[in-house]
Amino acid sequence: MDEGGAVGEGGRAALGREGPTPLYHRLYVIFREKILGGELRDGDVLPAELDIARDYGVSRITAKRALDDLAAEGLVSRQRGRGTMVTHHYRPAPIRAPLDGLIATIQNIGARSGVRLVSLARVAAPAAIAEELTIDPGTELVAAERVRSADGRPFALLATHTLPAAAAAFTERSLAHRPRLGLFEEAGFAVAAARQRLSAQLADDRLAVLLEVEPGAALLRLTRTMYDQAMRPFDHLVSLYVPGRFEYRMDLTRSDDEDGGWKPARLSVGE
Hints:
Layout: H1 23-36, H2 49-56, H3 60-72, E1 76-79, E2 83-86, E3 95-98, H4 102-111, E4 114-124, H5 127-133, E5 140-150, E6 153-162, H6 172-177, H7 180-186, E7 193-202, H8 205-211, E8 218-227, E9 233-241, E10 246-249, E11 252-254, E12 262-264
Parallel strand pairs: 3-10
Antiparallel strand pairs: 1-2, 4-5, 5-6, 6-9, 7-8, 8-9, 11-12
Helix pairs in contact: 1-3, 2-3
């Protein structure tokens, strides 16, 4: 069978030949994400090898290799005459955090998750970070990387660049055990405002290792700049989240404006 092509008869896009990753592994990743994301649950029976081969435009050997790899990881059980059955127990418990109520949101996440410090160093400000913090490129900053986990699985990588004065209380121990907001206040920097943006990016090899995802997996990217009471930026954060383990939620109410738009609703964190 030709292992390329257009759309399979089952309505799924056939796997093309592009990219260095073997077809069987790409097919494995598709089903693995369906299982880990809860689309396929414990006890569900996967399509037969021939059906998968037809739907995804691959050979039966490719389909068999992908299913065998799922079985080797303990996500499915394969039995002759019974097919391939999902054995993974899905736990639908992502940490929830509304976009409004910034300070409460950060404190809530910190209280419900563990953190591992990956790196802490003084670095020269890259041009993009310098622009965000309105400083000259090359200015010394304190850079830190931390991985947050819940239920033993990483869900976020937090990369920060902070003015040295605001990072005066940063140590390997404090960053691993205390919220950064408290460390800012200890250094005399109260967070008065923040500007943040949501986007997405794909995991490279390093991110894949740190977040325990496949290379090329889609990540939710949140960029946040903190301002002090004089509205001077002092901290820049890039957070990369694994969508299946974390979600941002914003509750909205109808606005009284003439355009009839929406505005954030003040609901309690974690509802």
